[in-house]
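It is worth pausing here to work through a concrete case rather than discussing structure prediction in the abstract. The textbook approach is simple: state the sequence, then state the predicted structure, then interpret. We follow exactly that order.
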Amino acid sequence: MIQGRLHLLIVLLVGLMAQGANANDLEKRKAELSQLQQQISQQTRSLKRSQAQIDKLHDLLAKDERAIADAARNLANTEASLKKVGNDISKTAARIQQLETLQKGQQQILAKQIASAYYSGTHDYTKMLLNQEDPALIERMLVYYQYLNKARARSLQQLKITTDELAATQEKATKQQQQLLSLRSQQTQQQQSLTAEKKQRQETAATLNRSLASEGRRLEQLQIEEANLKHVIEQAIAASKKDKELTGLNVRNSKLSWPTRGRIVRNFGSPRSGNIRWNGVTISAPEGRSVKAIANGKVLYANWMKGYGMVMVVDHGGGYMSLYGHAQTLFNKVGDRVNKGDTIALVGKSGGSANSGLYFELRKKGKPVNPRNYCK
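Step two, the predicted structure:
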């Protein structure tokens, strides 16, 4: 903008010189022209240095926010593992209690069988045969003895099985407790890492925002961001044409659910800067809250994007796409299939955003549409 004004002034001066001004005026204007050319050169160098600094800050911000995404994803996975191990421990404890009750009952049955055999004399097989005179009675006693013997053998076998399973289950419980302690230690380290990365990112974002303090510079950056997003959407459209399995968004009977719980703080079509308007909505929500896919689809983009931070674009078929920006972390990669309601990301403030929230867009054949018309 400044360069344009300076070039215009040069053209005017050259035009005036060409109109036949006197020698003194001509020399004076030549000096002014030379001075203006020097100012243009200085301004150009200054603008290049400023832009290079902003580009470096964006690169650093991307590095910081990718580190946050990795730490947040690792932490989320660890917390999911903790939850699973906790459930496993509860199930194991319940099984141990069942086995102990079963073992106790089996021991009591076996004790009764042994006592019964002792009191009836069947514990001494030889004595029982010598004391019997009636062959028929002896035969019946033999059958009875064999029955009791088999019953005790079954009871002993069942008791052994129960005792072995109980020992194995108790060993499993010990290992689960050790795993739980290890995961808790890992969780603490990951939380510390996430906190440190957030602090570094905050410093980088503050420096970047100071560099973009002027309205002209910020507008220029927004135009660059819009161009980047347009390029990504065009690539996504080209990729989506190759997939014929997706059926689009069905909102005839009922509207879709919003991707996260929160309050809409920026509406579709509201002014952003200059003539640039918001092509989606911003939902205010705390960092770490789940972001869910609004419908079945395929991930076409999952990466950091200037101005939007960690971004995921999902193709739903029928020309429909959804975009989720400013995420803290993404759980899916390009090519993944996602189902309606799947957690695909966590709310964050990536992309240099000052406040946590989710930027959400819906597009039909590449054109942004108001999400309020589709989500309840």
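Step three, interpretation. The chain has a mean pLDDT of 79. The CA atoms of residues 299 and 334 lie 5 Å apart.
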